[in-house]
Amino acid sequence: MSKTSRLNCIIPPHLLKRLLESQDSDVRQAALDTMLTTARLRGERAVRASFAGPAATATGNGRRTVFDCDQGSFLASAVMARSEDGPESADESANRAFGGLGLTRDFYKEVFQRDSIDGHGMRLDGYVHFSVKFNNAFWDGRQMVFGDGDGKMLGDLTRSLDVIAHELTHGVTEHTAGLVYHNQSGALNESMSDVFGSLVKQWSLKQSVDEADWLIGADVWTPGIDADALRSMKAPGHAYDNALFGKDPQPDRMSKFIHLPDTEEGDSGGVHFNSGIPNKAFFLAAVGIGGFAWEGAGPIWYESLKASSSETQFQDFADTTFQKAGELFGVGSAEQSAVLAAWQGVEIPISGVPAGVARGRSRTVDGNGGLSRQDGVAALTRQVGELSAQMTRLAKDVAALKGTG
């Protein structure tokens, strides 16, 4: 199967496998059905991807349409539940999907001047009540689809705005960098959706970096489940820890990188696991810059996404964010210093940055993992000044040698 044909799902395979171990037969059956249906859908997308030529995209000023699958698993059979010009639906799932798609569309338009998923007004089609007790939500290359959950462990996937924004962002990534869904590029793909999913939620609530919870899918678990969320960007590896699901396995630095086979069973090389590393880097950069994340770290990450390619790796992306921070906010700015410190915090040094400069700025990281704006600029200025002085002395030495030659 082509790696570009894989579905982009919010719930990782390892959580569904854990549900298969539940003592509740209904939960086990729902998990099994979810996995089987997902496998069928992946096959369908692989067939679509095998046709020559790019897939057509429907343009229409980002107009939204939400369809009700009524527990069916064939999207063509779904009926319209709400349209851009139509009245509010009696179905709350349809209204939540409609509202979430609209907020995400408006976020990209107002913050990044991006016109819908493809940048050209692509229509936004969402599907709710997909299949029976379907424990997932996904982007399939054309539309966003949301299940109701099994009702015991996982609830309606439309309840989390960041989940809706996460799925729409998979479409944005597909139409920009096209990050291939495996290994490090796939983990970056997942991270981009978490990053902008969190930003949409923060933007809608007008939360600063200190006020945000930095959780992904906090409203997905049912009240009876002892878990904060599906993932934590602030503390990867600490979103949940309970008897059924075990401890959140996400790493937060490169020394903890999880190596898995590039198969469906191996989560395409651990894309939902290792996304914790760039997620933590974004959190550190956002907190280091301060204020509203969509005004600081957000533009840096968005411009870096647009500048990336299909097989971009963690190191490539880190280097690009450092470059874009300099372009957007100035070389040596506090924002660029925060980006440097953030990637150092997850054990990815920026290529080409002299070790002395890196060490000087890394000491300015505060107790919260952020970077003091004034200290960051001062450290950078001091180190650049030292390098300049060294170059001046070297030039004088060279001139003296020529004079005596």
Automatic annotation (TrEMBL):
Gene Ontology MF annotations: metal ion binding; metalloendopeptidase activity
Cited InterPro entries: Metalloprotease_M4, Peptidase_M4, Peptidase_M4/M1_CTD_sf, Peptidase_M4_C_domain, Peptidase_M4_domain
Domain of life of the source: Bacteria
Protein family: Belongs to the peptidase M4 family.
Catalytic EC class: hydrolase
Cofactor(s) in the UniProt record: Zn(2+)
Protein's name in the database: Neutral metalloproteinase
Major subcellular location class: secreted
Keywords of this entry: Hydrolase, Metal-binding, Metalloprotease, Protease, Secreted, Zinc
A Gene Ontology cellular-component term: extracellular region
BP GO terms, sorted: proteolysis
Subcellular location: Secreted
Keyword Zinc: yes
Residues passing through the membrane, by range: none
PANTHER family reported in the protein's UniProt record: NEUTRAL METALLOPROTEINASE (PTHR43579:SF1), PTHR43579
Origin species: Streptomyces lavendulae subsp. lavendulae
Gene3D superfamilies assigned: 3.10.170.10, Neutral Protease Domain 2
Function noted in UniProt: Extracellular zinc metalloprotease.
UniProt domain Peptidase M4: residue ranges: 94-174
EC number of the protein: 3.4.24.-
Domain named Peptidase M4 C-terminal: residues: 177-348
Species lineage: Bacteria, Bacillati, Actinomycetota, Actinomycetes, Kitasatosporales
